[in-house]
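Memo to structure team: turn this sequence into structure tokens by end of day. - J.P.
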Amino acid sequence: MIIKRIDFRNINSFGHKLQTIEFPDVGQLILISGSNGNGKSTIKQVIELSLFARVQGKSGKKLALSKLPNRRNKSLYTSICFENDNGDEIVIKRYIEPTKAEIYVNNEPFTEKYKVMNELEREKFIGFSYEVFKSFISLNINDFKNFISLKLEDKRNLLNKLFNLDELDKYFSIVSDLDKLNNKEIFHYTELISNNNKQIDEYISTISKIGVLNRDERIKEILEIFEVEKPKYSSLIEEKKEIEQKIKQINYDLKGYMNLK
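Reply from structure team:
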């Protein structure tokens, strides 16, 4: 999401004159600074209200929307214009006292469609959830405390959504499954090679035990058997080398993934 502009009037201490803030289209972090009472919190509330129809108070608790309109003028109005992840230009307008909302997508009315959307659809439409917004996108000291107080699993989910780590987790799962499969194949071929080695040892032992009279005949017979089994043994050795090479590559990829995490 790239915020392009916000408009507001009659919110908190701001009067009926329309206030407009345009943001540079550079796709970078935006820092809002100023002394106490200059309106930093109001700007944050305008964005929250416009996007999610809810506002977080300074204590971290949900703020009643009825406390937002200017005491004298009422008729609160906020608007946000942004580009979502699909490249659509979205405009969301909110009114309080009277209360209503208007949503436009690429200058086309979208309010009725938005009303029937479920929470996940609205999250995808905007680009992130309210939990992600208040814990990451809009940061002040109270929001940061809110993130610290989250459970470990909630922190993980928020980070996954923010940095798209879910895709990396999928790849990690796939690589882990391949690793398990290759380990099974290595075990299978190692067992076959071990059995063949035992058989060869038995042949050698038999050769050493045979008598002098039939030694040449038995050696010839065993060598013939060995020549038949030799290609199979050589093939297993090559397959083992290939499997070991695959395991080295998988371990290298896993190490790189864990460093990224």
